[in-house]
Amino acid sequence: MKITKASDYALRVVGFFATAEKNRYYMRNELSEICSVPDSFLGKILQHLVKSGILESERGKKGGFRLSKNPEDITLYDIIRSVEGEIVINECLVEGNACKISGNCKIHNVLDQVRCNLINELKKVNVSNLV
Amino acid sequence: MKITKASDYALRVVGFFATAEKNRYYMRNELSEICSVPDSFLGKILQHLVKSGILESERGKKGGFRLSKNPEDITLYDIIRSVEGEIVINECLVEGNACKISGNCKIHNVLDQVRCNLINELKKVNVSNLV
DNA sequence: ATATTTTAAGATAAAAAAACTCTTTTTTAA
DNA sequence: TTAAAAAAGAGTTTTTTTATCTTAAAATAT
Ligand code: SF4
Ligand code: SF4
Hints:
- The structure is a homodimer.
- By secondary structure, chain A is mainly α.
- The first copy, chain A, folds into two domains: about 1-85, Arc Repressor Mutant, subunit A (Orthogonal Bundle), CATH 1.10.10; about 85-125, no CATH class.
- In chain A, about 50% of the residues lie in helices and about 5% in strands.
- Chain A is built from five helices and two strands; from the N terminus they run H-H-H-E-E-H-H.
- The first copy, chain A, has helices at about 5-20, 30-35, 40-50, 75-85, 105-125; strands spanning about 55-60, 65.
- In chain A, strands 1-2 form a two-stranded antiparallel sheet.
- In chain A, a hairpin with a 5-residue loop joins strand 1 and strand 2.
- The longest helix of chain A has 19 residues, at about 105-125.
- The interface between A and B is medium-sized, with 35 and 35 residues.
- Bound molecules: iron/sulfur cluster (SF4) (2 copies).
- The first copy, chain A, binds a DNA duplex through helix 3.
């Protein structure tokens, strides 16, 4: 019942961008230093964030990463979702992985509700709330 | 961001007890069969549930497991807490594991809030709500 | 008392997931 | 055309989850 380290790292980086110089590109190794995230691992995380449209990147000299939208428009949910996929709380909540009892399992229904509430909580907080 | 299989198994077993014959002892292998949980693994899970006072056990012939309190007085939180320890959402929220930034980290504070809400959600649902 | 049935406890093993690295390719700017 | 940067993906290590096995202890029936 925990977010992964990758998620925490992603939150740190995106959180940093909210305070950082607008529009400037930051290189992976700069971000690694600033946010205390292992450089190579950060590579993968940044790729996820780019792919889901939270960051944008530019290759080559003068390249790097920067926010691709306003901090107000990025929620904690977006970031966690981006690096670890959909939040499910329990395996049976993901399409196709239902256990044989799923149909009328009250636990299933309750956990689904808990998941909705959790996701809504995470959607309530945006990156500008982190400065 | 998921509960463990052990938690789901525990929920199934305790959920079953809510519908089962009151006061009767059920053996580990009966419960294993009924709830589709690997027998040996269930042993460990039942031990946790006994240790935290959700179930009570009796050894020897006529022995087994049964609820040690009313279904109304057992919450989903109690069960999950029993088998996987305190819910923390992020490592830095557990005493002594704070990262160097913890002191004034907004992410930390927000996740702590999310954790509280999640725990409260889980406390709202009791086992009798599962029948 | 003794055999039998059952949980308790803990060590250990296997499997899966998370955390992290490395290498090669592609893109860009100077 | 060269140097610097990210992209992509394979590969490794570590940690956690999941599960089993073995031995001990307790309770009961005979
Ligand atoms: S028992 Fe219920 S909650 Fe657990 S996996 Fe099956 S459907 Fe989901
Ligand atoms: S950066 Fe903030 S949230 Fe992440 S581990 Fe450190 S204190 Fe916790």
